[in-house]
Automatic annotation (TrEMBL):
Keywords: Membrane, Transmembrane, Transmembrane helix
Protein name, as recorded: Uncharacterized protein
Residues annotated as transmembrane: 6-26
Source domain of life: Eukaryota
Amino acid sequence: MCNSKAFGQSYAIVDTMTLLISYVFVS
């Protein structure tokens, strides 16, 4: 449970990167 916060942060970074990549593909 201690690592849930760090995992959430890294997942948020991955989610942001995926959003940027998808945005580039859509454009």
